[in-house]
Amino acid sequence: MDILQLERQLKAVADANRLKLLACLTDGEVCVCDFVDVLGISQPAVSQQLKKLKEAGIVLERKEGTWKYYRLSESLSPVVQAVIAQLPGDNRCHCEGSSCC
Q: What per-residue string of b and e applies to 6-35 under the rule 16 or more CB within 10 Å gives b?
């Protein structure tokens, strides 16, 4: 990994909202609609936060219908892995039954 990529990743994880998103993703793939409730911000604002994580190569997205699902990248730098390992999990991040998108 080059120094510029590491810089992008460190900047991406240096934000409380993005750290909350990463905590949600430690248990697997999450629909963008679930992040709105967790962060208490609008869907466009959540999308902007996810875009920064995606551009840094930390998360991957998958589109299904009108919804996007996010997961952690399989090729995270050791530094980002260490940051994520320190985050407490957040069980509010997954749909349950009909409350899902």
A: eebbeebbeeebbbbbbbbbeeeebbbbbb
Residue 98 has pLDDT above 50, yes or no: no
Total number of domains in the chain: 1
| pLDDT at res. 101 | 54
The torsion defined by the Cα of 23, 57, 18 and 26, in degrees rounded to 10, comes to -10
15: confidence class by pLDDT, cuts 50, 70, 90:
very high
pLDDT for 61: 95
Tokens of 41: 């911000």
CATH code for the domain in which residue 68 is found: 1.10.10.10
pTM of the prediction?
A: 0.86
Which residue range is the domain that position 16 belongs to? 3-99
Q: Cα–Cα distance between 56 and 33 in angstroms, integer?
A: 21
Query: How far is the C-alpha of 18 from the C-alpha of 13, rounded, in Å?
Result: 6
